[in-house]
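Page 42, continued from yesterday. The earlier attempt failed because a stray header line got pasted into the input along with the sequence. Redoing it now with the clean sequence only.
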Amino acid sequence: MKKLLSLPPNLVDSFHDVTGLSREEYFCTNDPVGHKLGSGGGTTWLLQACMTTEDGTSLAEWLPREKRILLHAGGQSRRLPSYAPSGKILTPVPVFRWERGQRLSQDLLSLQLPLYEQMMDMAPEGIHTMVVSGDVLVRTSQPLQPIPDADVVCYGLWLDASVAKNHGVFVSSRKSPQVLKHMLQKPSIETLNELQKDHYYLTDIGIWMLSDKAVELLAKKSMADPNGPLSMVRSSSAGLQGKNGQLKEYDMYSEFGCALGTNPSKPDEDLLDLKVAIVPLQGGEFYHFGTSREMISSTLRIQNLVNDQREIMHHDRKPHPSLFVQNAVCKYKFTEDNTNIWIENSDVSEGWTLSHDNIITGVPQNHWKVNLAPGECIDVVPIGDTEYAVRLYHIDDKFAGAEQQKQQFPVVADLEALSMLQTLDGLALVTSRMISAEEISTEANLHRLFDQRKAFRKLNWSALAKNWNHSVFYQLDLADAKREFDEQHIEMPPALDADAPLMTRIHDAMFRGESEKAFALLREGLLDTNDYQQIPQLSVADDQIVWGRSPVRIDIAGGWTDTPPYCLMEGGNVINLAIELNGQPPLQTYVRPCQEPRIVLRSIDLGAMEVVETSEQLRDFMHVGSPFSIPKAALVLAGFGQRSLKDELAAFGAGIELTLLSAIPAGSGLGTSSILAATVLGALNDFCGLGWDKNEIGHRTLMLEQMLTTGGGWQDQFGGVLGGVKLLQTGRGFAQNPQVRWLPTDLWTQPEYRPCHLLYYTGITRTAKSILAEIVRRMFLNHGGELRLLRQMKQHTLDMYEAIQQNDFERMGLLVRKTWAQNQALDAGTNPADVAKLTSLIDDLCLGYKLPGAGGGGYLYMIAKDPEAAARIKQILTENSIRKNARFVDMSLSTTGLQISRS
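This time it went through. Structure tokens are written below.
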């Protein structure tokens, strides 16, 4: 998804260098110097400039190639002078005290994009363009609603008239609240109150999605000659330029927007046919970073979104929450009297005295004695190769009009001259020339500015790691942290003490690249040694057999959210269904007593047998290549192998014969190994009188998998142990005991739907361990992108829950398709080329499909659009088999789950 940025001219050439962002993904330009284009003309200019670099022949041909997000951030930032040189869009934003997976180097741009990208991923096929503002941060605490299929989709918030009067508003009839009637710009409170009698109004938050048709019309309205194509010429001094007269000033909101709707406030015949939808951003939050005060107040509001101390991941020592220090060295000791302080990319030494409403940016290392009165701010900006501009200003200064051009700020020759100062009163003695606010922005050396910020951040990394208990260090994206440590050759922090919280030690181990230690610590948390202290007692007659049998499971939403350590940190949501294959539960276990004091293990499907006569043999469940790792570990969890096995079996009263049958290929993706383990544990539970219920069996299966170091979550075993279709949910913490909500089964059992569910064995084998290891590694490291995706998957599971509750077959199938897309986003190896080749043959016949489990091979679950489509799918895949052993398998819903019986 391409990002197109309109930036200040001085930032365009250095943007990719100072941010490290990809030139392929991020296109930058500035509006033509000396020409006011307005937001509409600027949008057209930005699109045309990008199209020119990609050899597009016309908007009609070029727009459908991919989706694009346009961010307008080319203003002069007159009311936010501290970030005018580098643009408001790159304003550094402190890590949220309640959030996990953020970066120490994050800025407004990186925080904006995830929501916009999610919206564009959901956009209808005809929408390829989103236009947003660069100086706001929009968040939402609720899931995004489906996006209407329209030419223009505008997002808004329900805001009070006292706020709405300063913005654009979307007006709709109460009878059709999603359809725009007209748009108003900065209406009076009286107008808004009058409207409410029979209308709704939403406040525009600057998120507009445009169809290709709407973009072409916007471009036409932005041209001085609507009938002539926009010409582009290249200027060596200012990049792409438009020929005079080709583009005119055209506002996207007051002109284009006010011409939209069923009864527009400024009708335009060319735009009357555009279909417009307005969408309330449910749970939306709007944070403006347009002024100095807003930068501090918006950051404070975000930090205070969560005040529950259980949700805040470190113990802060700030005397007031409105103190923000980042990318800086600050030796000033704050008191409760200090409020609304922003220090960034600066050195504040012992000689400084601060009060309140102070902003300090760009100040290099110094030994000054500075006393900042209330509202006083200082900004130091590198100019050229060696110079510095020093800007002293008031927090409410706007630098509007002539103030922007007034040459009032001193420039000093170099850092040595700046360092000679004892106080700022001596600035006049070292000033080489005066410079205006506008000249500061155009002449700023952004490479020097960002290099200084990086150097300060290098010092911060060491301090944060050392002071981890009172800092954000271990809640950061540790993959990004490790990259910065390596790139800047930062010494690794001291090892954590053993009394540090276990989860922190787990994060620390993976941060250091000690993956085996991280997994060992995770096992330590999940395994309670007291769980081995069972006292098994023979609970059957000499001639009885305990028979355990289980279905397998298909996960249709939320898989991976059940996997430690993610579920330990945030809990998990999964919906899966228990199924039998060819009318039978495919996983079975038989346990019977024998006279000899030994344990005999057999596998019917593998044709293997092993005799265990010592505890050492039993506890060797990690033996490579053993087909009996699962029953050995299960017997240890049942209480055997703690002392002499012969003595234990003598006290038990019999030897044990345990036989396995797995009527399903390895690497099936149906949760085979986990459910087989649960089946073995369930049979031993009955055989040994252990008193475990199904929930405890599921919990011990999770422990067993940790003992075998295969990892994995809890959804597999609970998917098979518990029958039917169900939503499984856990909260945070090491005690993962899923709550179960059973769902109606009509979508799988009713005659009109049952034939639509198809299960096809691809013949492609894979093991989940390699896919699992990489995904779990990123969980350990708080990988920001992965955490965002897992949270979306949790919410998606609740959407699936709602669809099944409503008996909505089509929506359920389409949500399975979305589940598959999410799985692939998590790991591309989920969908190998051979599988993609198969699904391409039947894609248009399915509502949705996925490889169950971790993916990579095994079974393919498909939901056909109707029984006729199902028949066609069977024919196509049978005729185009890519493996000799590929085949369709009859699947049916199991309502019983794990069954245990005795002969």
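Notes: Confidence is low (pLDDT under 50) at residues 230-245.
Reminder to self: strip header lines before submitting.
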